[in-house]
């Protein structure tokens, strides 16, 4: 190259100065030759010739991507497609959190390898909270891992509400442990209050609800609020836990008082004293007749 080609002009300030010239508007994946030159009253002299090749740019997302699918109360999938091979990084944050930089997304996010252009690739984001909005930030990176997208692309998604599950389905199990099949899951159910538990100071500690008669139809709700009475019909949202083999809602996120008047309790189910201790009658309103006291 000579000064008749593309060049930059920098002014030298004093002897032994470091000179930096920026070369912009270059074409990606292109080999260039460069050398320094100096011009004074005596003419122009040149330095050694060097060459370099510009990097492959970060891929672009295909139109309509990224997007989401398979949304549940605790997870959803993200689907990406790009116009070139490389990687996609994503970072999921609670909605309203300050937007991350591209470096933040790469450093703290999850990667998806893109091995073919214009193909769908998916990843599942799990462990989320029901009925909650999240912002997912995406960037791309070229196949050489040398260039990342300048600005993250944001996708906003809201998880589904906690699913409605009958008390029977919460309680019914064939597992020898007696644990609920919904152990650790956030769900909601509706039932009639059949009993209220108080401490020695007459402060409510929880209550039992039932949505049918007989086995597997009762469950304990561990909460001090709101104050309930026998006969109330309530909808409970919370997480199913086991406490000394007692299946219960704990913690409880919400109790809605659906009906507080003119309600009818489910009939007490007649059982023997021996049967009353079975797992299937946990939390169920029962009656024992003709029991012998000893």
Describe the global form: rod-shaped
Order of helices and strands: EEEEEEEHEEEEHEEEEEEE
Biggest β-sheet: count, sense, barrel? Answer: 5 strands, mixed, barrel
Helix content: under 10%
The tally of helices reads 2
Sheet-strand content, in percent, reads 35-45%
Measured distance between first and last alpha carbons: 110 Å
Number of strands: 18
Mean pLDDT: 94
Q: What is the C-alpha radius of gyration, as a whole number of Å? A: 34 Å
| Biggest sheet strand line-up | 12-13-14-16-15
- Low-confidence region ranges: none
Instruction: Label the structural class.
Output: mainly beta
Overview of the structural elements:
The N and C termini lie far apart (110 Å). By secondary structure, this protein is mainly beta. The mean pLDDT is 94. The radius of gyration is 34 Å and the shape is rod-shaped. The longest helix is centred in the middle third of the chain and has 7 residues, at 102-108. A 5-stranded mixed β-barrel has the order 12-13-14-16-15. A 4-stranded antiparallel beta sheet has the order 8-7-10-11, with helices on one face. The protein has helices at 102-108, 167-171; strands spanning 31-34, 37-40, 43-46, 50-53, 67-69, 76-80, 86-94, 110-114, 121-125, 133-141, 153-158, 186-198, 204-210, 218-221, 233-243, 246-259, 269-270, 286-287.
């Amino acid at each position: 190259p000579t000064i008749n080609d593309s060049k930059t002009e920098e002014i030298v300030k004093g002897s032994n100065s470091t000179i930096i010239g920026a070369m912009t508007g270059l074409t990606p994946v292109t080999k260039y030759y460069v050398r320094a030159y100096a011009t004074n009253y005596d003419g122009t002299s040149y330095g050694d010739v060097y060459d370099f090749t510009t990097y492959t740019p970060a891929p672009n997302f295909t139109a309509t991507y990224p997007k989401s699918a398979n949304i549940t109360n605790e997870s959803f999938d993200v689907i990406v497609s790009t116009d070139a091979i490389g990687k996609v990084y994503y970072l999921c944050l609670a909605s309203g959190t300050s937007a991350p930089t591209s470096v933040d997304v790469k450093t703290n996010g999850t990667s998806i390898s893109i091995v073919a252009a214009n193909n769908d690739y998916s990843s599942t984001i799990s462990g989320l909270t029901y009925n909650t909005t999240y912002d997912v930030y995406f960037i791309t990176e070229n196949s050489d891992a040398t260039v990342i997208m300048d600005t993250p692309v944001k996708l906003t998604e809201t998880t589904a509400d906690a699913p409605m599950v009958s008390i029977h389905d919460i309680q019914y199990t064939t597992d020898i442990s007696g644990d609920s099949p919904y152990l650790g899951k956030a769900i909601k159910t509706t039932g009639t209050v059949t009993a209220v538990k108080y401490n020695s100071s007459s402060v409510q500690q929880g209550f039992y609800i039932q949505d049918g008669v007989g086995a597997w139809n009762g469950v304990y709700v561990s909460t001090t609020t709101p104050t309930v009475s026998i006969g109330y019909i309530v909808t409970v949202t919370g997480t199913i836990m086991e406490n000394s083999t007692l299946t219960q809602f704990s913690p409880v996120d919400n109790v809605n008082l659906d009906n507080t008047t003119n309600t009818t309790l489910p009939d007490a189910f007649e059982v023997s004293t021996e049967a009353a201790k079975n797992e299937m009658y946990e939390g169920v309103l029962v009656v024992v007749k003709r029991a012998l006291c000893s």
